[in-house]
Amino acid sequence: MLPFTSADRTDSLGIEHAVACGDVRLVSLVPSLTELLFTLGLGHRLVGRTTYCIRPAELVRDIPSVGGTKKLRMERLRDLRPTHVIANIEENWKSDIETLQQWGIQVVVTYPRAPEDNLPLFRLLGSVFSRASETSKLCSMFEAQYEKLVRQKSKFEAQKVLYLIWRKPWMSVSRDTYIGKMLELVNWHTPYDDPDNRYPEVQAGDKALYGVHQYLFSSEPFPFKNKHLREFSTSFDVPEDNLTYVDGELMSWYGSRALHGLAYLEKLAQKQNRTLS
Q1: Does the domain formed by 26-132 have CATH 3.30.457.10?
Q2: Are 108 and 87 in contact (CB under 8 A)?
Q3: pTM (2 decimals)?
Q4: What is the reported pLDDT for 169?
Q5: Of 76, 140, 155, 228, most Cβ neighbours within 10 A?
Q6: Distances (CA, A) of 30 to 1, 53, 124, 164
């Protein structure tokens, strides 16, 4: 891998960060990025996390929580004296990020929009926190799995797929989301394609649902149970055989878990293709 450049250290707000040095103290406000920091060998630098930062479970247990991703306990966060906070445009409020910046804390802001955005994400954190070898290894592994899926895309049958993330109201994802882009890697396409409505509500009788081949129910953020699938089957007049549980972390988490997510997606597509053939 080529040496890091200043472009690698430029975050999603266009802020170029200096290489961190001295006593680095990190707070992560994004569950998937907390896991990534451990993968990059930076776990010992973490002094704070959100309550949703649950992986790696055995290692985050003793790290102080600063609240939820959108309900941060700001004073407690400041008391942890972080040098850097890792945030995300979609996960965290802009006002919270601005407050942290006003306090003089370096806020590294991320915003992966598609699976391939993991590569600059790895380089961003790897370059700011001097983790060249770990970043190189992670990028190589990701590229190999990603390129494998891209080469195989034409082998997968094009399908219209509804991916459910919430109930009351039922909600899905548009193509202009990380999940939507993941699905496209195996030639699956969501019924919704409005960049201004990235998480649309789903209603019975919606014309967009005509011709949907399969319905995927994510394990997060809403924890779907069998009773919810039965409810959906009845409300939308869809056979329960067409409803499938999927691992939401593997489908939606960017960072190091995305590498496992690509392998999971490949196996899921292979299985579903056999089912439909």
Answers
A1: no
A2: yes
A3: 0.94
A4: 97
A5: 228
A6: 27, 7, 15, 22
Nearest-angstrom CA–CA distance, 240 and 233: 6
Q: Which residues pair with 72 in a beta bridge?
A: 67
The CATH class of 156-276 is: alpha beta
Q: Where in the chain is the domain with CATH 3.40.50.1980?
A: 26-132, 156-276
Task: State the CB neighbour count (10 A cutoff) for residue 69.
Answer: 20
**198-221: pLDDT as tens digits:** 999 999 999 999 999 999 999 999
